[in-house]
Amino acid sequence: MVENYTKLSIYDDIVQTIGETPLVRLKKIEKYFNVKNELYAKVEFFNPGGSIKDRIGKYMIEGAKKEGKIVEGGVIIEPTSGNTGLGLALVAADEGYLTVFTMPDKMSLEKEFLLKALGAFVIRTPTAVAPGDPNSYYKVAEAVRNLIWKKKRPVTREELKEIVEYVQKLVKEEKIDELREILDERIEETPYAYIPNQYFNKYNPLAHYETTAREIWKQTKGSINYLFAGIGTGGTITGIGRYIKEKRRDVKIIGVDPVGSIYNLVKKGMSLEEAVKKAHPYLVEGIGEDILPETVDLSLVDDIVVVNDQEAFAMTRFLARKEGILVGGSSGAALYGTIKYLKENGVKGKKVVIIFPDTGRNYLTKIFNDKWLLENGFEIDDEKVLEGLR
Ligand code: PMP
């Protein structure tokens, strides 16, 4: 029986269908791993773009419109690992804005094709460069923005295509000095190009404070004891953490961080400088950082549990077979981290909510492809990897 189900309506546009995602109990997982707690997954692939990031796409564009940062005919540009791009792209398509996304090479091809299907332009950048380098995905987005600002008027789709191809060529040919020149030139800001920047945008955590958190509170009737979420920009855990801590301070907010990211090190008290030095690449997508974004407030996070790529991937694959829930690697990481944390800390009889940020369809050629796993040195016997958690 469907109770309190509010999504059985007719909507005026796709943007209105964002949010109100279900909580799904993970009974088979609880039994297999002998978890003495109730596990509920907030399954965010029910959003129209397939991820939790649709929520912030909507909030960041609405916020920019309200504040006059973007006007009709404007271009929205974002450095993104994919999901935020998709959220922005579908809201932008609905509202008539052009979009450009810059993405590191390591991100899956599927994500690039999805963005292009929604009318966006995509520029690929090298993965292993510092965020401040002129060919990093952050800086390449600024270069595109500056070239549009320079025109002092809205650009056509054709003009935008030329700008995108020019910048992609500079990146590919490693013309660092030319990129730096575009970045350093003093250009007047116009509302014809805007970078929402999910890492610094207050509407990112606000989207989760006002929607994701309220939904969880309502769905659990305020009976939640633990919330587990991966930390990328930190918007999810910060927005949810803030709302829930205002309601009941004793609810534990636990972050899940990949090995190689800085969050767990900073939370343990290491200086940011030291932590950044220790950061190293990993393959799970969407979580972990080598910078400390403005959108994260680690004071709301009670603890952080660390998960490696192998554990994340094995759990993601196992979850699909065991529960029929096909999600991405950050969801598998969150679930692995949850069970590990609950067991290590002897937690029993609690209601636990875990955020599953996106769909596994984004990773069919990677996490769900044995050949890719083997080529990258991973074990494909998931049960063997997970044995230690039982
Ligand atoms: N998982 C995936 C797949 C993501 O794309 C993101 C967003 N980077 C996250 C988790 C983390 O969410 P947040 O940025 O709100 O911390």
From TrEMBL:
Q: What Pfam families is this protein classified in?
A: PALP (PF00291)
Keyword field contains Protease: no
Keyword Nucleus assigned: no
Which cofactors does this gene product need? pyridoxal 5'-phosphate
Q: Where is the Tryptophan synthase beta chain-like PALP domain?
A: 16-358
Transmembrane ranges?
none
Annotated InterPro entries: Cys_Synth/Cystath_Beta-Synth (IPR050214), P-phosphate_BS (IPR001216), TrpB-like_PALP (IPR001926), TrpB-like_PALP_sf (IPR036052)
SUPFAM superfamilies from the entry?
A: Tryptophan synthase beta subunit-like PLP-dependent enzymes
| Classification via CDD domains | CBS_like (cd01561)
Gene3D superfamilies in the record: 3.40.50.1100
User: Which biological process terms from the Gene Ontology are attached to this UniProt entry?
Assistant: cysteine biosynthetic process from serine
> Which Gene Ontology MF annotations are present?
transferase activity
Family per record: Belongs to the cysteine synthase/cystathionine beta-synthase family.
Designated name of the protein = Pyridoxal-phosphate dependent enzyme
Name the source organism. Thermococcus argininiproducens
